[in-house]
Specification:
Chains A, B: GO terms for molecular function: homoserine dehydrogenase activity; metal ion binding; NADP binding. Chains A, B: Catalyzes the conversion of L-aspartate-beta-semialdehyde (L-Asa) to L-homoserine (L-Hse), the third step in the biosynthesis of threonine and methionine from aspartate. The structure is a homodimer of 450-residue chains. By secondary structure, chain A is an alpha/beta fold. Chain A has three domains: 149 residues, NAD(P)-binding Rossmann-like Domain (Rossmann fold), CATH 3.40.50.720; 164 residues, Dihydrodipicolinate Reductase, domain 2 (2-Layer Sandwich), CATH 3.30.360.10; 97 residues, Alpha-Beta Plaits, CATH 3.30.70.260. Chain A is 34% helix and 25% strand. Chain A contains 14 helices and 17 strands. In chain A, the strands form two sheets. In chain A, strands 7, 8, 9, 10, 11, 12, 13, 14, 15, 16 and 17 form an eleven-stranded mixed sheet that branches. In chain A, α1 packs across α12 and α7 packs across α8. The N and C termini of chain A lie far apart (56 Å). Chains A and B meet through α2, α6, β12 and α12 of A and α2, α6, β12 and α12 of B.
């Protein structure tokens, strides 16, 4: 193709990484070559593929393209575009900086690196007048980066709330649908290839937190790093939590939530944690490995983006979209939008964020227990939205404090609070743990989307 | 703001039209001025607003900006960016061409003009090396143009299916939820401001067809004009259709469907018509003035975009996103993607498109009626998916042809076909009308999303 006399010189692509996503990108660069050329205005071709091991089976990949010298590939003067799908901080950072440093455009799916050190990468791209695109870093194939960075850039985004980790969504689905405990559901996910052998990045919320940092940075024109994100994983979600959620007509989802506080000078709040979502909320229906992101803004109102959140094909689709865009920019001598962090808002600590809690307690089934629990909330300025008391003693009949005689055994209180500062809510729960009437705090979870 | 010595020279915006959308754009240009400057890298300011009448009340708009000489405004040498929200073919076309001709960038919400004569506009933008952006032309605030034009440009889109007209969606909702007939539901919509005094563009599907043409052009890299779109409105949707849909657990929606045929050399099919959508399909839940667009592609899989489809705020959000993008491009001396119509696929006539039908018939309740109806379908090569026979005579008991004695009155047959060429399906229905056993063809509708 490159030797056809009627074609302009090709743009040459260095592909860093040849796993699930990389091999799909390599395949598409070959099978879609003529469409890509028509869309870009110049042919694109693979200059080389950096891999860790040369001797692995790679069906459909020309072995002559493979190299273990990633830096050598990036620094080749004939490379115009670099696609980084290795992941992790190093050597990805050094390779991307080297690529940008010599003016190559970079497409990356590396959420961890962007959330850790995006500012350095953006500065390098800006200085070289070249492009850094990263649609594949969040929510797989779902176009969310470009809508935030470009479509909504004339609007004022107030909330981004999403399910951005398919692994945890799969695990929570299993816990809901099959009554599995966390470990059991995790084992299923691992067996089916939805979770890695070391699942920490997913189940502890690190992956979602990196994505939340990227989304918040774009939405609020502010640098937000992974370490700014309040992060709670799903390892402590119990069968009791799931049962309580089900009883309330809710589901537990790991959500990434980016909001502006309503201080006079709004701060940015970014958090990742499991939350109870009402069954009627559109996010509640997002199952399995799917992702969905809600965006709320002053003029546009509420938008939702939905699609497959991971996998070779979907992630490669996002990478290829960016690749065509940066290639078109190169053909036109242009570059896309750079970092926009002018607002430089402060990040609010979780304690300052306004949330609401669901609390499920095992309490002594004695007269006055509801009063002392309610008093505890009131002392912290937290008002209650609903309280339900269920007997769990021998009779196991549903009782309310007023209507029925106490059995002397234990009863369950299920409480949903009104919105309050998170610090007040967690202090309340701490104090509840020390009340003599409270046998056990069975389940505590934030409620979102109500 | 423009006189501050530390600010670079402002980019100057000519706003054509000051109705619901235009006045909101004018307001945002003022109230968000400092954010816009930070995001673009230069201030933007209104150079003037072209209106039809000067003497109308326009709260918050500086009367000194108003002019009735739209062409004079567009041709002013200090105008960098032109926002066209007048709508309609002329004078919008002449104004946009004049703007592009002198190198100004254009942002437009004008679906009718783009679907009628987009090629001329794109050619003018390309020749001048300037931008033509049109996110607001389809589905209000929902980012759909940019995802199709950029995010998914490295992928192969196979289907775009959407609810892209809020007025008809509102009317159909009322027919479903309140048992209203079409005229009654239309009157409600007009009263509430969801439908115009002359509702033709909405209820006859012209608005949706223009949007479908734009979506198909982008998805399939092919020029598709409004006249290429097979169009059926909702004026013939009856209470009987709605009742039948409800009985089947479906809802009737006006859908815009863009697909590739599976010919060896795929053609483009673009159609707008009411269809029965199963209640379990995500599009079924899109109510009122909301819009939603499904996109299916080879690598990404199924994506959905959802949000408010019209209104001043949402449409202004889309316009402002484009405005910031073209302004950024101008600051960088760049321009965004132009028209991509290289694939130049043929447009398939509706008869060649593969669809499936729901048909509801009033038939003579005599032995053998099912056989002759089934024979009629078979003759046209159409196979049946489900057949339900309901007695509607005096007994009104549900009967099946084999299980019960005919009553000699009339019965109802409810048929859903397998997928077949639309021409075969419509020929079948024509022939059914002439069968002596068929008293009436009560309802005929395509079934989508099953």
């Amino acid at each position: 193709m490159t030797d056809r006399p009627d074609s302009p010189a090709p743009l040459r692509v260095a592909l860093l990484g040849c796993g699930t996503v990389g091999s799909e990108v390599a395949r598409l660069l070959t099978t879609s070559a003529s469409d890509l050329e028509a869309r870009i205005g110049r042919p694109v071709e693979l200059a080389g593929i950096a891999v860790r091991r040369l001797n692995r089976e790679r069906p459909g990949i020309d072995p002559a393209l493979l190299t273990t010298d990633a830096m050598g590939l990036v620094l080749r003067p004939d490379v115009d575009l670099v696609v980084e799908v290795i992941g992790g901080l190093e050597p990805a950072r050094a390779l991307i900086l080297a690529a940008l440093g010599r003016g190559a455009a970079v497409v990356t799916a590396n959420k961890a690196l962007l959330a850790e050190d995006g500012a350095t990468l953006f500065a390098a791209a800006e200085e070289a007048g070249t492009d850094l695109y990263f649609e594949a870093s969040v929510a797989g194939a779902i176009p969310i980066i470009r809508p935030l960075r470009e479509s909504l850039v004339g609007d004022e985004i107030t909330t981004v709330m999403g399910i951005v980790n398919g692994t945890t969504n799969f695990i929570l689905d299993r816990m809901h649908n099959e009554g599995a405990g966390f470990s059991e559901a995790l084992a299923m996910a691992q067996e089916l290839g939805y979770a890695e052998a070391d699942p920490t990045a997913d189940v502890e919320g690190f992956d979602a937190a990196a994505k939340a940092a990227i989304l918040a940075s774009l939405a609020f024109h502010t640098r937000v790093r992974a370490e700014d994100v309040h992060r709670e994983g799903i390892t402590d979600v119990t069968r009791a939590d799931v049962a309580t959620a089900t009883a309330m007509g809710s589901v537990i989802k790991l959500v990434a939530i980016c909001t502006l506080t309503d201080d006079p000078e709004p701060r940015v709040s970014v958090r990742v944690h499991p939350a109870m979502i009402p069954g009627t909320h559109p996010l509640a229906a997002v199952g399995g490995a799917y992702n969905a992101v809600f965006v709320e803004s002053r003029s546009a109102g509420r938008l939702m983006f939905y699609g497959p959140g991971a996998g070779g094909g979907p992630t490669a689709s996002a990478v290829m979209g960016d690749l065509v865009t940066v290639a078109r920019n190169r053909v036109r001598g242009a570059s896309g939008p750079g970092e926009s962090s002018y607002a430089a808002r402060q990040v609010a600590p979780i304690g300052d964020v306004v949330t609401s809690y669901h609390v499920s307690l095992s309490v002594a089934d004695v007269t006055g227990v509801l009063a002392s629990v309610a008093h505890c909330f009131a002392e912290h300025g937290v008002s209650l939205q609903t309280v339900r008391q269920e007997g769990t003693g021998a009779g196991a009949a549903v009782t309310t404090a007023e209507a029925e005689e106490p059995t002397g055994g234990s009863a369950r209180l299920v409480i949903v609070t009104h919105a309050a500062r998170d610090a007040a809510l967690s202090a309340t729960v701490e104090q509840l743990r020390s009340l003599p009437e409270v046998h056990e705090v069975i389940s505590v979870m934030r409620v979102e989307g109500a």
